[in-house]
Amino acid sequence: MRSGRPVLVAAVCAAVLAMLAVLGGVTPASGTTPLLPGARTETDPGTGAEGEPPRAPRAPRVTDSRGRALALRGWNVEDKTHRGEAALSSITEKHFRDMRGHGFNFARLLVFWDDLEPRRGHYSAGYLRKIERILDWAAKYRVHVLLDAHQDVFGPAFGHRGIPEWATRTDGLPFTPQPDDWFSEYFQPAVQRAFTHLYEDADLRRAQASMWRVLAERFGGHPALLGYDPLNEPMGELREGEDLPTAARRIEAEQITPMHRRAARAIRSADRDGWLFVEPTPIVGEGVPTGLGRIEDPRVVYAPHFYNTAMEAGADYDPSAGWIESYEAAVTAYPRRHGLPVVIGEWGPLNNGLPHMREFYEDALASFGRYSAGWAGYVWCYGGGYCAADESGALRPNKELTATPYAAAVAGRVRADTYDPDGRVHRLSYTAGPWRQGTTELSLPPSPDGWRISVAGRAVSDRRTVAPGTSALVRVRALPGARVTVTVTP
Predict the structure, then answer these.
(1) What are the tens digits of pLDDT across the range 109-129?
(2) Of 260, 268, 325, 449, which has the most beta carbons under 10 Å away?
């Protein structure tokens, strides 16, 4: 959202369990086993673990091609500064090594149409190679990547990044830069008209679809690629006398929904497996339910952003204001109606050091745990402001709360998946799926105390402990149909 801001038969059971018992040490965070692109969703059955009361059904999960339920925990990765030959140069292998070293498994990579197609019909081979290099780094460190076709205030015609100038049509309407309040530039007449032309002009529709098709043809099937986000924070043109919530719902229903459908057709012409992450307007951040319609595709993820206007302007978190509760109520209606998983595409305040920010992170993460399959914080960089890490690579104050144990991939049907931040205890209960689903994987971040892993049920893990200060990807293998509980404690 910010412009320029710096998830057998009995006869052989005993033999299999014996083999599992002698599995080697923990798989390092930098393992190179290929990731698997998505294939389908799975809805939790709503039954509790043994001895626990039934739980309400959760949202569907994003799954890999084996059918394992994924939890996505990670960060946006970007280079908004460099263009042309220098594009993406500030993104390095270190980004993915450090993210994985803290236990994160997901990156939302910002790519820009104006860099991909600087002249109409001319796609930059160099830019595609740079994207591929980044995906290769991600695969090396087992990080799932979402390609985000990003825009801020439409694009370079208005001093930002995104839609190429050759695809920007304003009908001569005025634009006055507002550098101290860049988001207000979305409401400048020229910017609003440019969105209308992008959605409505047949030749621009074809050009945008071709851009998506180029990305899908080049990167569909890459071991790191999870999916595509057709357009970051889409906006549109308000009509005279129309209030913002009404306009947002109309634009989402009449223009953004058809755009997502066109994106789905274009991407599916080259990639049948990648997930389609669809966004509403950012107005959903004010607790406004979306007007998006149904996207007829079996691999759709609802991917809203989680920003509060007051906090973006520098205010502290106000727990009594009820913003998170309002957001959660608004944002869950659409995916519940259409049976979609939810992944928060961007979130995180500019100033994470204010007095109530620790409470904000605790409340936000608890909220995500109730309805989402994952999230990508903004942004993985090294320094101040929005940056997740300081110059040494350590997570900055309060942002360290995002690094917790979680079930990165569950080979079976999840019954309960909880984390107690006070006791730092993660508990996963699931019914194991068939052998073809492989192992369940738990991602554990570095901890000064290390971690202890215990497994109940007909299953074994490849580690019982993790040493202090190290991250780990712990694998659990279970007999098909077994009811398994994995508990991680300090």
Answers:
(1) 999 999 999 999 999 999 999
(2) 260
